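TICKET #2291
ISSUE: user wants both folds in one file
ATTACHMENT 1:
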Amino acid sequence: MKKIFYVVAYDVKSDKKRKKISELLEEWGVRVNFSVFECEIPRKALSPLKKKIEALINPKSDSVLYYPLCLNCRSQSERCGMTAFRSFEQKLIVV
């Protein structure tokens, strides 16, 4: 199944809804900033994910942005500051 790399950024006022959105995105990627995730999402899963997120937000006060990145663009990304982010291959294990 082909996966597409997305940067997903959101600005959601409700703490409860923001938490639910982050939990949905954690299934597909890693948090790289407070409200920003890098995700690898299969094509077939993108539309259902968007629908779940859209059902949570208030379109008058909240926003969610999806930025697809090609492999070449992704390889040229740069980070400044904290670099202790997990990669997709790393799994977070809490004991």
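ATTACHMENT 2:
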Amino acid sequence: MLPKSKVDLYAAIRRDSRQGLSNRAVQRKYAVGSLTVQKALSSARPEPRKKLPSWATRLDPFKPLIDEMLPNSRHQASRSASQATARSGTRTSSQS
């Protein structure tokens, strides 16, 4: 059974290596590469995950324009919707 976390994987790799398994055998047993075995043997803890940079979206160039179009208050849109429904006499799903 394969280890559940990377810390457990590193511990298992070190344990098997101490018991005399070759690096190649450890690679096959845990389905990892030689670099992973080398890292596990050189360090007890795996290095932390890298933070991914935020991605630019296609909407980013238009955000200032959208902000100009929208009302300043976040709640103004919901107030406008409730006023419009009050005038027409219909009920929205949020009012039921």
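RESOLUTION: both attachments delivered.
EXTRA DETAIL ON ATTACHMENT 2: The chain is about 50% helix and 0% strand.
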